Amino acid sequence: MRRDPEVTGVSRRNLLGGAAAGAVAVAAGSTLLPRSASAATDTASHQYAFEGVHQRGILTPAQAQASYVALDVTASSKAELVDLFRTITSTARSLTKGGTPPDTGLATPPSDSGVLGPVVPSDGLTITTSVGASLFDDRFGLADRKPARLRRMEDFPNDDLDRAVCDGDLLLQICGHHQDTTLHALREITRATRGAMQVRWRRDGFHSPPRPAGSSRNLMGFRDGTANPSTADASLMNQLVWTRSGGDEPDWVDGGSYHVVRQIRMLVEFWDRISIREQENIFGRRRDSGAPLTGSKEHDVPDYAADPSGEVIQMDAHIRLANPHTAHAKKQQILRRGYNYDGGTDANGNLDMGLIFTCFNADLERQFVAIQKRLADEPLVDYVSPFGGGYFFALPGVRDHQDWLGRRLLT
Amino acid sequence: MRSIDSRRGVLAGIFGATLALTACGGPSESAASSASSAVRISAGVDDCGKGWASPHGGRQTFELHNTTVAGEEVHLENAATGALYLDVESLGADARQQATVTLGNGTYRFVCLPSDGEAALGAKVTITGSKDVAGATPPLKPVTRNELIPALKSYQTWVRGRLPVLQTQVQQLETDLKAGDLASARASWLAAHQTYETLGAAYGAFGDLDGAINGLPAPGKTARQDHHLEGFHRIEALLYGGAPASDITPYASRLVRSVSDLRSAFVSGRVDPVDIGLRSHEILENALEFELTGRTDAGSHTALATVDANLTGTREALEPLRTILAERYPDLAATERALDTSQHLIRTFQGADGEWTPLSALTRSQREKVNAQIDATLELLAPVAAICDPRRTS
Fold it and tell me: Taxonomically, which superkingdom (chain A) (predicted)?
């Protein structure tokens, strides 16, 4: 195994927060989000420590590429389910570390697909494993272990959900600096777990570079995630991202997080035919700078006190409904970590592209659901169509080399 | 996305780490070092294995250089048992090829096998002082063509014994159609088709005759639309698509002739020993690609009956290899159990009246279960072809 003791050592010292460990890799490339072809050699050795209180891929700065894969468990007993989680853990551990795949000799096909060459680079790979509500049905006797807020994602008023691309017993969110890295990880994990789970739906996404600076743009041309809470603020993350046991939550959930994924088609041809004024009023922000209409720069806080009747930022603008900046709304903030997707074309030749909306929150009802309900019938809904996704719960982190994903849930 | 300010804060906090990181070697360096550390081995007839100075245990890379004027194959074997660690095939004249292996204590030697000559044995090389090497390459006792021939003969005897059964069944189909009895014709069609699907015709094993007997419609056409199509699927489209018996009979008569041709061809034809190992996983690969996706269904909705037949065919292909595999494949028993479990699962979709559930009537979780079971079985079957790939030993 080619392994860099410095990287792992530094990351372990920063276990208190994924943000710090995440930043190691970012700093090493001396660019925030390395993604160009020439960055391949710079990023190949970037390694996020697999073990920690929390899983990676949550506070970790968004890598350039993501593969979202929802799976259904086909294992037929609790013991087989435990084997499945152990196998996912060991495979994810070696993939994120990188190194030389084992030599299984002449009696088998090669142990690795070879997609990343003979020595597998870490390449900023993170694999975040989450569980869906259906895992807690009667198959494995886990009904009383279900995270309290976890349930099948409901149809919100403006949704057009195709249940074939919704839900799932498990979700793997695989992120890395390059798409070959995420797809390699997907192939190796599905191969290692063959028979115990089946892919239900999947979607690949990409994170656009800053154009020209600031938050990454979505495919409507607007910056996405500007209002995110700071991942460097550990106490804020404890309030907003990490779920705690106690109350109605079971004892194993500490350090996990509710993981919401929504596949949202953007009707980009229609969007491109409306005026910039209408576009900006719909969001409440300037398209080019990302500034709220009441301000001048991206990170200026929208000034609703000075605009109580919506003369500047209309009352049903996306940002105003999503975060009205009241004391109450502070507790509802979510951590967004979305990716853009490109899905080819539809039957009438329109481009199928949009957003894999992703967010993490400590309390699904108090945060994501409350915000989503406020957004019902906002003007933006004419230009987007949510069609898939689901609610999941990102498992607590793997503490050490003996530990495995879901251990506290299953034992 | 977080604000620029907060990112700066994080970066400043781990600046020391940044320095440490940038000082580390990248992948290009490690690649270069592995190239320079490769042990250069001559692989000619007179100098086979020359160059292996200071042998040591652990992971190591050899650069094999074919110093002859023709293609050759190079093995690294255990000098005591003849088990192989490396088998570099098709190494061209003057070509160099790197091969990596992890070795523990033992006595080894290279064997150079020119395509047009006898094997040349390299000098024996002993590695000592390397106990408990982690991840050592597992050796494979090579399977020769001669060892495969009895297995192949046994398999061929089985196939040959099934062809008269197939012939009787397609003749019955023709008889039913001539009598205008469509219900009986459907039952005869299914019986004959299942028999054929046990025979391991996957991926062109029966050549053009498979196209005449069990071909699929041309791209973009259905089996009903493709007037050039004949055989089982053309008959299926007509039989389950409301065609009168008289329209179907000529196709049944042609099918009878094609099966007769297959019997003749099979008697005179030679099968390569490499095929038997391939057959034991390709039949089921074919089932996964064409049957469990519903692609071959021309109206009978009997994909699961076909998969059941394919599982039988897989067991029949595996059966004569059991002796060879018993000492080489630790998961043989698990593979056979997986085949049993698969067949049991598939047969839960056949009713007491013999009717098969259409693939499209399976619930999502039933379909996932079927796919998962076949997938898992295929993973277990994959090493069979690798093990039974015939290798030269002299």
Answer: Bacteria
